[in-house]
Write a structure and sequence with these properties.
Elements: H1 15-22, H2 33-43, E1 50-53, H3 74-96, E2 111-114, H4 120-135, H5 140-153, E3 155-158, H6 166-175, H7 177-188
Antiparallel strand pairs: 1-2, 2-3
Helix pairs in contact: 1-4, 4-5, 5-6
């Protein structure tokens, strides 16, 4: 007879446990030289920050409609003509498009400095946001605020003419949706936060 062993799911890690794990107190009693050496070894894999210019990304290029099929009906040809007109209008709009920017004091695009959500502080922010979303699952505004707060906590500095604070970052994302989306996409690109490979 085969006995199946089941392993209970661990309880979610608290923010306090996460902090103790990712930033251990190396001065505590019982910490050995090997513990300190291993902590330094782990730090060598640390993620770098990314400087993100506050420039609205260009819209995606429209996709050209397929050629009308031979033997198409009058209705199909009319639909194709409408699709071609819509495509041309989208191309014209893209050609006329100019990006919006958030300027720094010198008029150049401001820069946000982002930390990865996989950094110790980023993971802690993620845990806190996930807990808030779960607690307010039925409250759409509260869930949206928790998501905005997670993005805001990924910002560790900026070159806007007003001094950076986490609360101002939250207000910024609430008022500038295109910037919020740009930061969200950047955070999902994990490779951007990896240190450059060592050269031999």
């Amino acid at each position: 007879m085969t006995t199946t062993m089941t392993t209970p799911m661990p309880s979610p890690m608290t923010s306090t446990e996460h902090t103790a794990l990712t930033t251990p107190d190396l001065s505590a009693d019982g910490v050995t030289a090997e513990d300190a050496k291993f902590a330094a070894y782990l730090q060598s894999f640390g993620l770098q920050t990314v400087d993100l210019p506050c420039v609205e990304p260009m819209p995606e290029a429209p996709e050209a409609p397929a050629p009308v099929a031979d033997g198409a009906t009058a209705a199909e040809r009319a639909a194709h003509a409408a699709a071609v007109a819509a495509y041309q209008a989208a191309v014209d709009a893209n050609n006329a498009w100019r990006p919006r920017i958030l300027p720094a004091a010198d008029g150049q695009p401001a820069v946000l400095t982002l930390q990865s959500l996989e950094s110790p502080a980023g993971r802690l922010a993620y845990l806190e946001a996930a807990a808030a979303m779960q607690a307010d699952a039925g409250n759409a505004p509260a869930v949206q605020t928790a998501a905005l707060r997670l993005l805001a906590q990924s910002v560790v500095g900026w070159t806007l003419p007003i001094a950076y604070t986490p609360e101002r970052a939250l207000q910024l994302f609430a008022h500038v949706p295109w910037l919020r989306d740009l930061v969200d996409v950047t955070l999902e690109d994990r490779a951007r936060f990896l240190p450059a490979p060592a050269t031999r």
